[in-house]
Amino acid sequence: MENVHILTQRVTGRGDFLPFSAEPTRLDEPTATHELVTELQTSLIIEDILAMYAKFAKKLLNFSGLQFQSTLGTTQTSDSSTTSTPYFYDLSIGKEHLGQLIYFSQYPLNAVIERKLRALHAALVYPLRNAMMYSRVLKLATKDALTGLNNRSQFNDILLQKLENCRRYQRPFSLMLLDLDNFKQVNDNFGHKIGDDTLIEFSKILCSSIRGTDSVFRFGGDEFAILIEDPEFTTNKVIAERIMRLVRHSSMMLQYKVTTSIGFTLASSKDCENEIFARADKGLYKAKASGRNCAKAY
């Protein structure tokens, strides 16, 4: 059974050796791999798995950053620095390609290090695939398939959480409901493909109109909601006016004569989810009754 002590690489021009690992370590490979697999199986969150793996891999390689790139996006460890040279490794199970694992290191990777990293990759791929499957299932359960926004189920969960925070920690917030004026005629006259494109365009407008602390949801059809981390009517008016302005300046919305009506209300510590939703809905009804293409508080 092979034991690994400090792994080193000659640095050109200096004539000395620097350790790949920041600390001397002695690894029994089969035992170490078993320990890694056991630890990785404790989570289904990609970020957690990457962090656990990075902590273990640093016993072999003194890298400055670690990333995993896949169809789900890019995940990296919290302390990653990506200024050093990247080293790319494809991660696959059979013919299934999971993505690329990227190490950032100022030292070249020799054959010994690469062999040992690949052994660790074999321990990583199955827990990582499980986490990716979980992430996809979670996304299907909480995201709208067309727009990528949070869906109604996620809205219900987050609304309850915000109401609880409002009651316990005095963190008031606002609820805004929106729908599209004249949207039915777009589907009827131009087809559902154009209708879908219009919904996607409106989703982008909503996302570009809010702050990082706010959340956008699509309930279905042309019905949307925004949870706003601010208890002021002024803030709601600013966001509503920004949305309507961007709708007016959108060539797609202009082409198909689509506008938006908006209703909003402020939460209180005495609210339940039905009460705050009913008030925002009444605000939306007021906007429709006032000729549409406007925002009304309730």
Automatic annotation (TrEMBL):
What biological-process GO terms show up in the record?
A: cell adhesion involved in single-species biofilm formation; negative regulation of bacterial-type flagellum-dependent cell motility
Report the InterPro entries cross-referenced here.
Answer: Diguanylate_Cyclase, GGDEF_dom, Nucleotide_cyclase, Rev_trsase/Diguanyl_cyclase
Would you tell me the Gene Ontology cellular component terms?
plasma membrane
What cofactors does the UniProt entry give for this protein?
Mg(2+)
Top EC group: transferase
EC code(s) of this entry: 2.7.7.65
Query: Domain of life, per the record?
Result: Bacteria
Report the PANTHER family cross-referenced here.
DIGUANYLATE CYCLASE DGCN, REGULATORY COMPONENTS OF SENSORY TRANSDUCTION SYSTEM
Can you name this protein? Answer: diguanylate cyclase
Natural source organism: Pseudoalteromonas aliena
